[in-house]
Design a protein that fits this description.
The complex is a heterodimer of chains A (396) and B (375). Helices cover 46% and strands 15% of the residues of chain A. The longest helix of chain A has 29 residues. Chain A has three domains: 83 residues, Orthogonal Bundle (Butyryl-Coa Dehydrogenase, subunit A, domain 1); 111 residues, Butyryl-CoA Dehydrogenase, subunit A, domain 2; 150 residues, Butyryl-CoA Dehydrogenase, subunit A, domain 3, CATH 1.20.140.10. The two termini of chain A are 33 Å apart. Chain A is globular, with a radius of gyration of 22 Å. In chain A, helix 4 packs parallel to helix 8, helix 8 packs antiparallel against helix 9 and helix 10 packs antiparallel against helix 12. Chain B is α+β, with helices and mostly antiparallel strands and 375 residues long. Chain B folds into three domains: 113 residues, Butyryl-Coa Dehydrogenase, subunit A, domain 1 (Orthogonal Bundle), CATH 1.10.540.10; 106 residues, Butyryl-CoA Dehydrogenase, subunit A, domain 2 (Beta Barrel), CATH 2.40.110.10; 145 residues, Butyryl-CoA Dehydrogenase, subunit A, domain 3 (Up-down Bundle), CATH 1.20.140. In chain B, 50% of the residues lie in helices and 16% in strands. Chain B has a four-stranded mixed sheet with strand order 1-4-5-8, covered by helices on one side. A four-stranded antiparallel sheet of chain B has the order 2-3-7-6, with no helix packed on it. The longest helix of chain B has 37 residues. The chains are: A alpha+beta (396), B alpha+beta (375). At the A-B interface, strand 9, helix 9, helix 10, helix 12 and helix 13 of A face strand 3, strand 6, helix 9, helix 10 and helix 11 of B.
Chain lengths: 396, 375
């Protein structure tokens, strides 16, 4: 048993730290630290900075130009990025579509799409969920009917994160309505500029237009945009879910979030004393920190198994449940910490182009608290995760 | 022992509930939230006409209610419908202070409030005061026949709509001393008073208020010199009953929306409410809701008792805990739909959670409860 990183791992960590110190733009990390959005341009800029270093494709195999880091390296990188308040890497093209293309796509698809993901030519979004198919994803209804050398797509996708920026969408569509639920689904790549596509923003409860509905009305998609075989799309989508997901626990985000709460608690005062000395608030912070310390080690245990070649099973589900509970608790602390100044609805502060109301750290905390309720809902709700854990572990 | 509402209160509840369910729809309310003023003058007028404001004052004050159960009856319904209009600020806080302290001239403003023609705002909290009612650093200095006010007030709710701001300012003592705080009726258009207005997370508007050499006549003083703290404490006690009742009403809505959704939404071929994992969690919400209702009953029933402050601290602490649970669980059990602005629950959940940030969160009231219980 040895809880510390090896010398190579430490050297790698230092390399990542130095890179972040030198290359992460200060105004960008300031925005992330304050909980503000950085917009499409901001994300594209950060991607290009990483790509220049060859680190944007850190999870990709070498044959596709990736860095092919192991699970420990990936964890170190993600941890350091979160601690430095780097923007999160937009995952849709890089870590959701790319692994599917690399495993199941044609040579032509790989050669065409993968470089465009890296150089930022294409912004991808994910077309899985539908209004009637959330946790029960396999009940999706969007239809694709073959017509000569095209599919004609009709239906509606929902909760499409950052779809307003997207050039392309990867979709699960039903190609065989007669087959059993999971068996008639195909995986299609659709150009968002195709006639018949309409994107409508869904305003979330914190006021941000972050997700969208995407409507398909007789949208003609060339058959060469089918990934793999027709009616095998469910297998490809599921492959992603079992694909190693080291970041799922969000340890880095939680640690950075807790640091931010502590900073605020040092500046805020309650009854004339710093809030951080208030026994009730201090106890709440301590409990989250204790949970986080343990989860961080759980995370490392699983990562080191993964680095040794063991595919994680239900542990991913466990980390998702515990990780989101911890992150949401930290959001709750952040909201409490600022007292009455949580009340202003600082949409301007979230977008970052106006004078803050009250202390500058107060602006986005209530919005973040509400927005991050999504963490336990999306990507397979915590109820779905618990179901998976029980099913696997109870041997029923 | 009788836990029923009196006939008058039952009528008030029925009338208010019917009016709000017909007039205060999600669409209507969301349009109000997005409007420049953040409130509907029309709805305000109609509710005044229905007697909703009068019900919050005693007969001596020109109303026909004013007891703890009148407050809890009205605010439960306002909470159920997610009303964003500033009843707490204009009526309970502003109107309450004038009714308690005002001389005959000042008292005529209460009549205007009851008629729906005047809005008020309490400009008390300051950037550093958090939930501490005694922390006042704004100063009031006598200068000839005038009084000069200097300072900053934070998150002054309803300031922009108000005809008058009731400003607390210190005439003596240090920043935390209970004595020396005075209250002043300051016209919103007073020279030297500036506002930075903004919308709030759960609807309505507030402003950061700066008082820079604001001169008011001595007749603007509300109540005796330096004796404002007790009046503030009394009116905030009533506000806390109102907030607890409002959150409880909103929790009922959140629970009812969740029940409907659980029994309608199908996944894996059946209503999701038939999954035991969700059914049990829903039952827990109902159990907590009963606790919340009783906590409000306790607080409202003790508004005039010696045990008032301890009962109120208990109610606000319990409501803060159960409110968070109900809001978060209702969203979770709905899933994505509850994350959208246009769905009723989104607003209701925000009303519940943001109650925490007015006059103290769960921790603040827990500390108060501990302190008062030890005394």
């Amino acid at each position: 048993m040895d809880l510390s990183y090896s010398e190579e791992e430490l050297a790698f960590r230092d390399e990542v730290r130095t890179f972040l110190e030198e290359k992460l733009p200060k105004d960008m990390s300031d925005k992330i630290r304050r909980g503000e959005h950085i917009g499409k341009e901001g994300h594209e800029l950060w991607h290009s900075i990483l790509n220049e270093k060859g680190w944007l494709s850190y999870g990709w195999p070498k044959e596709f130009g990736g860095a092919e880091w192991n699970a420990v390296q990936r964890h170190i990188f993600e941890d350091e990025c979160a601690a430095a308040y780097a923007p999160r890497i937009v995952p849709f093209g890089l870590s959701m579509l790319a692994p599917v293309l690399q495993k199941f796509g044609s040579k032509e698809q790989q050669d065409h799409y993968l470089p465009r993901i890296l150089d930022g030519t294409d912004w991808w979004c994910q077309g899985y969920s539908e209004p009637g198919a959330g946790s029960d994803l396999a009940s999706l209804k969007t239809r694709a009917v073959r017509d000569g050398d095209h599919y004609v797509v009709n239906g509606q996708k929902s909760w499409t994160t950052l779809g307003q920026y997207a050039d392309w969408i990867f979709c699960l569509v039903r190609t065989d309505p007669e087959a059993k639920q999971q068996e008639g689904i195909s995986f299609l790549l659709i150009d968002m500029n195709t006639p018949g596509i309409e994107v409508r923003p869904i305003v979330l409860l914190d006021g941000t237009p972050e997700v969208n509905e995407v409507f398909f009305d007789n949208v003609r998609v060339p058959v060469e945009n089918l990934v793999g075989e027709e009616n095998k799309g469910w297998t490809y989508a599921k492959y992603l879910l079992t694909h190693e997901r080291t970041g799922i626990a969000g340890v880095g985000f939680s640690r950075a979030g807790l640091d931010a709460v502590k900073r605020v608690a040092r500046q805020e005062s309650a009854n004339g004393r710093p809030l951080i000395e208030n026994p009730h608030f201090a106890a709440r912070m301590a409990q989250v920190e204790i949970d986080l310390m343990a989860m961080s080690t759980t995370n490392l245990r699983i990562i080191s198994q993964a680095a040794a070649g063991q595919a994680p099973g239900v542990e991913s589900s466990m980390l998702k449940v515990k990780g989101t509970i911890i992150r949401q608790e930290i959001n709750d602390l952040a909201r409490r910490a600022v007292g009455p100044y949580a009340m202003p609805f600082a949409s301007e502060a979230v977008e970052g182009d106006n004078d803050p109301i009250g202390p500058d750290y107060a602006g986005p905390v209530a919005a973040q608290y509400f927005n991050n309720r999504k963490l336990s809902i999306f990507g397979g709700s915590n109820e779905i995760q618990r179901g998976i854990i029980a099913k696997v572990k109870m041997g029923g | 022992m009788d836990f029923n509402l009196t006939e008058e209160r039952q009528m008030l509840q029925d009338t208010l509930r019917r009016f709000l369910s017909e007039r205060y729809t999600t669409t209507e309310r969301n349009a109000i939230i997005d409007s420049d003023t953040g409130l509907s003058a029309e709805i305000w007028g109609e509710l005044a006409e229905l007697g909703v404001i009068g019900a919050l004052f005693t007969e001596d004050q020109g109303g026909f209610g004013g007891a703890g159960y009148d407050i809890s009856t009205v605010f439960e319904e306002l909470g159920r419908a997610g009303v964003v209009e500033p009843f707490l600020d204009t009526v309970i806080l502003g109107g309450g202070l004038i009714a308690a302290l005002g001389n005959d001239t000042q008292h005529s403003l209460v009549e205007e409030v009851i008629g729906g023609g005047l809005h008020l705002a309490l400009a008390h909290g300051e950037p550093a005061s958090r939930y501490d009612l005694s922390r006042v650093e704004t100063t009031a200095k006598v200068d000839g026949d005038d009084i000069v006010l200097e300072g900053r007030k934070a998150v002054v709710i309803n300031a922009e709509a108000a005809g008058y701001l009731i400003v607390s300012a210190r005439e003596s003592g240090g920043p935390f001393s209970l004595d020396g705080i005075s209250l002043f009726l300051v016209p919103a258009d007073a020279s030297g008073l500036t506002m930075q207005g903004y919308p709030m997370m759960s609807g309505g508007r507030a402003a950061e208020v700066t008082l820079d050499n604001v001169r008011v006549p001595a007749s603007a003083r509300l109540g005796a010199e330096g004796a404002g703290f007790q009046a503030l404490t009394d009116v905030v006690a009533r506000a806390n009953v109102a907030l607890a009742a409002e959150a409880m009403g909103a929790m009922e809505s959140a629970t009812e929306l969740t029940r409907e959704y659980l029994m309608t939404r199908k996944q894996f071929g059946r209503p999701i409410g038939t999954f035991q994992a969700l059914a049990h969690r829903f039952s827990d919400l109902l159990i907590e809701l009963e606790q919340a209702r009783s906590a409000v009953t306790n607080a409202a029933g003790h508004l005039d008792s010696d045990d008032r402050d301890r009962q109120i601290a208990a109610a606000r602490n319990l409501i803060a805990r159960t409110g968070r649970l109900v809001a978060e669980e209702a969203i979770q059990m709905h899933g994505g739909i509850a994350m959208t602005q246009e769905y009723e629950l989104a607003h209701i959940a925000k009303r519940i959670v943001m109650t925490d940030h007015r006059f103290g969160d769960a921790d603040y009231h827990l500390e108060r409860f501990i302190g008062l219980s030890a005394a």
